[in-house]
């Protein structure tokens, strides 16, 4: 991940996390995917079908099994492949949990971004660049289990890749099991070329943009002040 002063071009930079410091951006963390392997100090491959984590199908009725071998680093790029394996499918899921965590402070804006190329579309393909809250050492989350402690989806696309979703999931005070969803979308052709996916996250607002064009924003008024703590205001979030 990479950050830079606001006036600089983003071309050629794979990923980014920065803090504005009154819009004079300061780099917090970067990964240019140099070398031939993932940086183990930042990334952990998750493996299996989710059962080991108590969420068979990873909570989405997913059919694939995740393996470390479906992620590769070469030529300054991280590649994640989805493949047919016998009668099933494999892919990769990488997390920075317990290794890297970021959230804006009071009066600050945090920018998180990734330069990502989506593959050709296909039924059942669901790439995502997203964040979950960081857990305490005892495994507890700030406001309880999903979705009460929130989720920020920086980029998701499904099947045809002609639409990008930017979303937050959160739980209202009643703590509904399925949570609440605030979502923005933008249409276009997103496979076959690199695009820059960004959120700007402040204490009271999150906005989404692609290639410098903002297409959505949400603030504490829209998600209710009491619910905002579990969606965006937590200081304990991590990219996932």
From TrEMBL:
User: Where would I find the GH16 domain in this sequence?
Assistant: 39-240
The GO terms this record gives for MF are: hydrolase activity, hydrolyzing O-glycosyl compounds
The family database entries (SUPFAM superfamilies) matched by this protein are listed as: Concanavalin A-like lectins/glucanases (SSF49899)
Question: What does the record list as GO biological process?
Answer: carbohydrate metabolic process
- State the superkingdom: Eukaryota
CDD domains for the chain:
GH16_laminarinase_like
A Pfam family annotated for this chain is Glyco_hydro_16
Regarding protein family, the annotation reads: Belongs to the glycosyl hydrolase 16 family.
User: What's the protein here called?
Assistant: GH16 domain-containing protein
